[in-house]
Write a structure and sequence with these properties.
10 helices, 7-stranded mixed β-sheet, Rossmann fold, alpha/beta
Length: 276
């Protein structure tokens, strides 16, 4: 089993369902982010932290059959899912990002989404990834939620309290400090401190309104309302606020947020790109 990451990641950890749901919900925006990279047929790409592998097929579509796509992830459950889902689109490797079993200077681009924020030292991780790039190669770091997400447009107070409760929960569970959680916002600076240049950043808005389609509702209900929030936030909220949150998150309650005509969801996805 690998050493735990900042957020508890090991080779045995499995959050495949969460990854599937996010990629299904955000597919349009993730594809737009990939298209912004202007990849060309024949390129060699690495998806570092490929998770369940949905992006591997999207990347393969950009570099065509003459290109090479490799997916790498620490968790065995994720690489098994990526292998099963990607078919012949990519080569799949289970490995620690900090110790990749890959040749130096062998890729044109590294794509890495919601991954470096799991490292104790993101700059060191990016330096390792940079060593895998050919001259003029690029790293594209994608990160969701650099700005606070919006779930309860009609109740900014409760939304603020829930966001802080989540942060308190993660600090307590993983023994983190506030600065550890806030560091994720500095992905552009991480690229610079790792020695990359020509850093550019673009933010894509994941925006959804009522009525939600099946994929969007599944992501919000399972990944956020149940897995991220739920009972574990009770110690960090006043009783009345927790009860209100519970009603908004319960599909059997008339107040269920995702079925409100005024439901409006916003989440950012930021792509920072730098060259070696």
């Amino acid at each position: 089993m690998g050493s735990p990451g900042l957020l508890g990641d090991t080779s045995a950890r499995d959050y495949s369902r969460k990854l599937n749901l996010f990629n299904a919900c955000a597919e349009t925006e993730l594809r737009l982010a990939i298209a912004s990279l202007k990849l060309v047929p024949g390129m060699k790409l690495l998806d570092a932290g490929c998770g369940t592998g949905e992006a591997l097929g999207w990347l393969r579509g950009q570099v065509a059959t003459e290109g090479v796509v490799v997916g790498m992830d620490l968790a065995s459950a994720h690489t098994h899912a990526a292998y099963a889902g990607s078919g012949s689109a990519a080569l799949i490797v289970q490995a620690d990002l900090l110790k990749p079993p890959l040749a130096r200077a062998s890729f044109d681009l590294v794509w890495s989404v919601n991954t470096v924020n799991h490292l104790h030292d993101p700059v060191a991780g990016v330096e390792v990834l940079a060593s895998l790039l050919q001259p003029r190669g690029r790293i594209a770091l994608g990160q969701s939620s650099l700005l606070p997400d919006m779930y309860f447009a009609w109740n900014a107070r409760l939304e603020r309290l829930v966001t802080e409760a989540v942060r308190q929960y993660y600090r307590a569970r993983y023994g983190l400090k506030e600065r550890d959680l806030a560091a994720v916002r500095s992905i552009a600076g991480v690229l610079g401190r790792a020695g990359l240049h020509d850093v550019r950043v673009q933010t894509f808005m994941i925006e959804r309104l009522f009525p939600l389609n099946e994929k969007d509702e599944a992501y919000l209900l399972e990944t956020i309302f149940r897995d991220t929030w739920g009972e574990r936030l009770r110690p960090y909220l006043a009783d009345d606020d927790f009860l209100e949150l519970s009603r908004l998150c319960d599909p059997d309650n008339p107040e269920f947020a995702l079925r409100r005509p005024d439901f409006h969801f916003l989440q950012t996805f930021t792509l920072a790109v730098g060259s070696v």
